Amino acid sequence: MKIDPPVADCSDSSNLEVPVIVNVTATIQNSNESYNVSWQFPGAGLSKGSKPASEGTLVFSFKSEFSCRKMNETKWEVSFKNQKGQTKNESVDILVISASEKFCAVHDKWPKTPEGGTVINQCENGKTGYKSRTCGKDGEWQTVFSSCISAEMTKVIDAAELFKTGIGATQEAAMEIFESLKNTTSSKSSDDYAGINASISIINIMASGSENITLKEEVFDDFLNVASNLLTNNWTGVNSSITYDMSSQYLYGVENLVKNIQVNDTLNIYKPNLDLKVSKGDCNISVLNVTVKLNETGVQFKTVGVRNLMDKLNNSFKPTSTAPHNLLLIVTKNGSSSTEITMDFPIKKLNDTQKLHCVFWDTNKKDWSDTGCRVERDSNHTDGNHTLCKCNHLTSFAVLMSKSDTPNLDLDTITYVGLAVSICSLVILLIIEALVWSVVVKTDLSYFRHTTLVNIAVFLLLADCSFLASMSPENLSAHWCLILTLCKHLFYLAMFSWMLCMSVMLIHRLIFVFNPLRKRVFMFLSSIVGYGCPVLIVGISYVYCRYNEKEYYNKATCWLVFAGTLDGSLFAFLLPVGTVIFTNLFSMAVVIFTLLKSSAPDGSKSDERETFKSIIRVLIFLTPVFGVTWGIGFLLQIFNKDHEAYPFLLYSFTILNSFQGLFVMLTGVFAEPKVRQELLKRMDKGKYDTMKNSTSASNTTVKMKAKVVPSETATHMYST
């Protein structure tokens, strides 16, 4: 049906009584049938009639008028009823521009149209279909959508539909259809949505028709020319959902035609966007630089490499997955038994934050899936420039790249909760240190311990706050992302530097018992290590990256960059931290060795139990303040992300380090008797006296056992 005018202009409130004349036409196929035609319409009918039209059609017309003031209905409907009582209905709506409503002004052949309205126009002479255009928000015209195709394309569609029914379905007819389609797709007239969509429809129609007739290999040349031409053409002018549907239909049609066309022996055909190779038996071929291996005797395999299609297909396989190339493979065989296929793609992942996936196209879901496919280690290529895929079925294959897939929701929740608890714990620790400082810091040794502990707490607090602020990089500007990356880099390095100071102080105390460290020397050296070194490392790494035009931080993560082995700003963090952790582990080993050495060789079982308990206390109390849990992060770098132990290590790393502030508070403050005593004294004077007597008796018992003194020293870091 067609309505003229398509839009009724009722925007002039002073002329609402002026009648609007509407002409409606309905076209139906001319036959021996006689029709009873009825119309439903708003307003009053003026006239109606019918006349023959071109190409064996009948056109029925109707004219009516209505008033803008009484415009309640906007639909015109026609009903055709034949002699058997069968009916066919069609309707059309007229768009109405009311007063004060926004609209798009007249533009070329597009009439004045209300906001949100879509108008239909006829195609140019010689083309079939229609054009439509929508008036967008604020009265701005959107892009014209055209389904107009040439008369030649229409003839090819009709011939393909006839071929599908089996009428005239011969080898010659198929070759003629593809030859005509090749000529059509080679011209610029088909370089639009309508032409491409019609061509894809023809390929699918022929794929359905080829199920019932044997097509020989002579069809391949023109068919592959058509398929290649379509990928050369421009697929713009439509939204992504239409592009996804077109590309899926293209892949489905090409795959089925390749499978159905019969080839007697081997065959090689190369086109600009497709590379077909047909082989028999054990297959080891190269298609568009992808090596394909199949081991099955007496079976014919057809392999097609396809360029310029990957970016047109839907991809919701992984939230962050992308195609590192624009290449996919179509592999088919005669027979239905399962087959393992090996494909060597010339693709490498850029860094360890990315993961490669071997995938196939699921025609039911119209999306990629990795069911039955896996990435294998390639012993033939050690340069990391290849990806080896193995699948246990045949269809269309590709390689996708994504960020390493981890259960981000769970990890994010743990991280948020852990950081919140850690920050609160560190604030409490600093408040407690301020309250008890004058009481517990009486000797140089206690001064050293509490100074390092306070610095560790301060820098861990600042680092946790910076980390929490950068957990949603997508909401941060590049400027703030850089600032937070610098802060995290600096504060975490400073924290580890003060952990190193505490570790070295412990070793010095154990080895040089009669040569205690002086306060001035300790503060001078600790200031250099704890303040100077982190600033120097961060400054040098940032300046180096900037002046060598390298990325210092990743905008997607607001963290340092990993660009390869010993390449990237991340190593300005990993190497210093690794050195500190190794040193601290050595210090813990020295403490444990000292405890074992101090125990009597012929001691009783109770003495051995006391020594064992002392070692456990050392491990518990020193692990948080020595940053030993961060060593799990290095294990994560060693283990492959597909390893079964990787999730356990990842969760362990997240939990232990998110709650590190809590552990530092518990082991660094509440584990020290003097701090507990002072806190209890402040809270309850009476309870403090009772606790003091109990603690004194306990300490007297401990001092009688000389072999346990090193445990007390290591555990409480020489608190006095």
TrEMBL record:
<keyword id="KW-1015">Disulfide bond</keyword>
<feature type="transmembrane region" description="Helical">
    <location>
        <begin position="648"/>
        <end position="671"/>
    </location>
</feature>
<dbReference type="InterPro" id="IPR057244">
    <property type="entry name" value="GAIN_B"/>
</dbReference>
<comment type="similarity">
    <text>Belongs to the G-protein coupled receptor 2 family. Adhesion G-protein coupled receptor (ADGR) subfamily.</text>
</comment>
<feature type="transmembrane region" description="Helical">
    <location>
        <begin position="452"/>
        <end position="470"/>
    </location>
</feature>
<keyword id="KW-0812">Transmembrane</keyword>
<keyword id="KW-0325">Glycoprotein</keyword>
<feature type="transmembrane region" description="Helical">
    <location>
        <begin position="490"/>
        <end position="514"/>
    </location>
</feature>
<keyword id="KW-1133">Transmembrane helix</keyword>
<dbReference type="GO" id="GO:0004930">
    <property type="term" value="F:G protein-coupled receptor activity"/>
</dbReference>
<feature type="transmembrane region" description="Helical">
    <location>
        <begin position="616"/>
        <end position="636"/>
    </location>
</feature>
<dbReference type="GO" id="GO:0016020">
    <property type="term" value="C:membrane"/>
</dbReference>
<dbReference type="InterPro" id="IPR017981">
    <property type="entry name" value="GPCR_2-like_7TM"/>
</dbReference>
<dbReference type="InterPro" id="IPR000832">
    <property type="entry name" value="GPCR_2_secretin-like"/>
</dbReference>
<keyword id="KW-0297">G-protein coupled receptor</keyword>
<feature type="domain" description="G-protein coupled receptors family 2 profile 2">
    <location>
        <begin position="411"/>
        <end position="672"/>
    </location>
</feature>
<dbReference type="InterPro" id="IPR051587">
    <property type="entry name" value="Adhesion_GPCR"/>
</dbReference>
<feature type="transmembrane region" description="Helical">
    <location>
        <begin position="416"/>
        <end position="440"/>
    </location>
</feature>
<dbReference type="Pfam" id="PF01825">
    <property type="entry name" value="GPS"/>
</dbReference>
<protein>
    <submittedName>
        <fullName>Uncharacterized protein</fullName>
    </submittedName>
</protein>
<feature type="transmembrane region" description="Helical">
    <location>
        <begin position="521"/>
        <end position="544"/>
    </location>
</feature>
<dbReference type="InterPro" id="IPR046338">
    <property type="entry name" value="GAIN_dom_sf"/>
</dbReference>
<dbReference type="GO" id="GO:0007189">
    <property type="term" value="P:adenylate cyclase-activating G protein-coupled receptor signaling pathway"/>
</dbReference>
<keyword id="KW-0472">Membrane</keyword>
<dbReference type="Pfam" id="PF00002">
    <property type="entry name" value="7tm_2"/>
</dbReference>
<keyword id="KW-0675">Receptor</keyword>
<dbReference type="InterPro" id="IPR000203">
    <property type="entry name" value="GPS"/>
</dbReference>
<feature type="transmembrane region" description="Helical">
    <location>
        <begin position="570"/>
        <end position="596"/>
    </location>
</feature>
<dbReference type="InterPro" id="IPR036445">
    <property type="entry name" value="GPCR_2_extracell_dom_sf"/>
</dbReference>
<dbReference type="GO" id="GO:0007166">
    <property type="term" value="P:cell surface receptor signaling pathway"/>
</dbReference>
<feature type="domain" description="GAIN-B">
    <location>
        <begin position="265"/>
        <end position="407"/>
    </location>
</feature>
<keyword id="KW-0807">Transducer</keyword>
